[in-house]
Every structure is written in C-alpha cells, then in structure tokens.
Amino acid sequence: MPKLPVIKPPTPKPILDQLTLNLPLVTQQMVDFVGREIRRVGLSRAVVGLSGGIDSAVSCYLAALALGPENVLAVRMPYRTSSAGSLSDAQAVIDDLGVLAETVEITDMVDPLFERVGIGTESRGERLRRGNIMARQRMIVLYDQSAAFGGLV
Q: Which letter, b or e, does each residue of 57-87 get, where b requires 16 or more Cβ atoms within 10 Å of its Cβ?
C-alpha cells in the first residue's frame, strides 16, 4: 500500500492577532448610530445616568461626540453609601467632555421605602431588593430629567 504524505497543518495565529479592530472606524460607527437613533425619534439631546463606571462613561462620550457636549446632560445619582471614587470618576468624565451635569441624591427617596417594607442589609436577598429599588429610582430620576431637558435617556 502506498504511503500517504503527511501534511502538517499551519500554525494558528494567536487569538488576539485575529481580533484586531479599526478603532477610529468603530468609534465613528457608534457615534453615528447614537446620533441617528436620537434624531430618529425627533430629539437632539440626551440624558445619561453617569455612575463613574465604564459603561456610563462610554455612553456619555458617545453622546457628546454625536450631539455636542452642550446637548448632553449627565446625571449622577448617589446613595449615601456610594463611593466617593464613583462620584470623582463621574466628575472627571464631566470635566473632560464639558457636558451639563446634575447630581440628584437618591437616599431620601429610597430610605423611606426600605423602612416601610422592612428591607435591611444583612442578607443577600435584602441587598438585592435594595439594589433593585435604587435602580428603579434612578430611572425615575432620569426620565424626569429627560422630560425637563428634552433629551432621550
């Protein structure tokens, strides 16, 4: 029986070499998308909940690039146990972009409900309930600010 040739497969490229992005192109596509979608609903302004984290920071940058910083309202909504670092990180984004900014403290809005329904901080379930209530209160604030500012959340 004849011998078949042994074919050595090519050495695969490292995965990171295969994941290159054209960052200027991707950024422009995201900026265009944000601007197009906001204008599609008849608006030219945006309201962004700015926590100091990466997701909200990127959203704020994209909105400012798409609409101009004068058309973006960044809203910080700390709770009494929020870290000072989060507020300062959010402020750094505001300062860098020159967007409009408001700070709405939510402690006085949510603490009465925590007390009313008896939610403490001891168990994981209680912390989850507190987090859910705070998230919903923050959205109430954002939608209110959206109506006042005339911008899309």
A: bebbbbbbbbbebebbbbbbbbbeebeeebb
pLDDT for 84 equals 94
Rounded distance between C-alpha atoms, residue 35 and residue 67, angstroms: 6
pLDDT at 109: 97
* Continuous H helices in the chain: 15-18, 23-40, 54-67, 84-97, 107-117, 124-149
DSSP code of residue 98 = T
The packing angle between helices 23-40 and 54-67, to 10°, is: 70
Mean pLDDT calculated for residue range 100-125: 90
Cβ pair 110, 138 in contact under 8 A = no
77: CB partners within 8 A, 6+ apart: 49, 51, 103, 104, 105, 106, 137, 138, 141, 142
| Cα gap 152→139, rounded to integer Å | 12
- Map residue 75 onto helix, strand or coil: strand
Predicted TM-score of the model (pTM): 0.84
